[in-house]
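Weekly sync, protein design subgroup
Attendees: M.S., D.O., the rotation student, P.L. (late)

Item 1: inverse folding check
M.S. brought a backbone from last month's batch and wanted to see whether the design step gives back something sensible before we order anything. D.O. pointed out we never logged the input encoding, so this time it goes straight into the notes. C-alpha cells as presented (162 positions):
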C-alpha cells in the first residue's frame, strides 16, 4: 500500500509541476509574446505561436490538470470528505484542494472553451473572439494568483501544519 501512496504522491507532484508550470508559461511568456508579436507591425505576427505552440501547450495543460486532481483525490483517499468539508486536522489540505478544484474548473469550463474560439476550433466572429481573448487573459491571471496560496496549503499537510 505504501508503494501506491508513494506513486500517487509522485504522480500528483509531477503533474502539478507540469500544470502550474504551463500556467506560469501562459501568464509570463506566451500572453506577453502574443501581445508583442501582434503590436510589432514589422515582425512575423503571432500566427506561428497560435499554430505551433498554443495547441500543444493547452493539450498538456488540460490533461495535467485532470491527472493532478485525480492523483490528489487519491492521496486524500478516505479523508476526501473531511478535507473538502474543512474538518479539524484537514483544514489546510482542504483549502488547498478547493483552490485546486477552482483552478481545474477555470481550465475546463472557462479557459478551454474560449481558447477553442481563438484557435478556430469553435466558430466565432471577431467580437466573440475579442471577448474570448479577454476572458482567457483574466481567468489565466486569476489562476496565477490562486496558485500561490494553493502551493502553500499543499505543502502544509505533509509537514505537520494542519
Ligand atoms: C494545481 C494544483 C495542485 C498542485 C500544484 C499541487 C501540488 C502539491 C504538492 C507539491 C504537494 C506535496 C507537498 C509536500 O509533500 O510538501 C501536494 C500534496 C498534496 N496534494 Fe496537491 N496539488 C494540487 C492540487 C490538489 C488537489 C486538487 C487535491 C485534492 C483533490 C490535492 C491533494 C493533495 C494531498 C492530499 C496532498 C498531501 C499528500 C501527502 O500526504 O503528502 N492537491 N500537492
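Designed sequence read out in the meeting:
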Amino acid at each position: 500500500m505504501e508503494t501506491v501512496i508513494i506513486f500517487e504522491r509522485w504522480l500528483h507532484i509531477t503533474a502539478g509541476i507540469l500544470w502550474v508550470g504551463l500556467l506560469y508559461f501562459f501568464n509570463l511568456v506566451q500572453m506577453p509574446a502574443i501581445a508583442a508579436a501582434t503590436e510589432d507591425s514589422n515582425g512575423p505576427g503571432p500566427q506561428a505561436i497560435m499554430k505551433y505552440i498554443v495547441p500543444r501547450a493547452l493539450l498538456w495543460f488540460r490533461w495535467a490538470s485532470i491527472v493532478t486532481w485525480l492523483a490528489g483525490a487519491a492521496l486524500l483517499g478516505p479523508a476526501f470528505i473531511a478535507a473538502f468539508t474543512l474538518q479539524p486536522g484537514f483544514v489546510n489540505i482542504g483549502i488547498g484542494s478547493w483552490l485546486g478544484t477552482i483552478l481545474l474548473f477555470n481550465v475546463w469550463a472557462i479557459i478551454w472553451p474560449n481558447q477553442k474560439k481563438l484557435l478556430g476550433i469553435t466558430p466565432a466572429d471577431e467580437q466573440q473572439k475579442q471577448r474570448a481573448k479577454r476572458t482567457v487573459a483574466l481567468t489565466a491571471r486569476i489562476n496565477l494568483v490562486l496558485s500561490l496560496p494553493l502551493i502553500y496549503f499543499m505543502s502544509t499537510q505533509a509537514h505537520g501544519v494542519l
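Discussion: The helical segments are 2-39, 47-76, 80-84, 91-118, 126-157. The two ends are 24 Å apart (CA to CA).
Action: P.L. to compare against the previous round before Friday.
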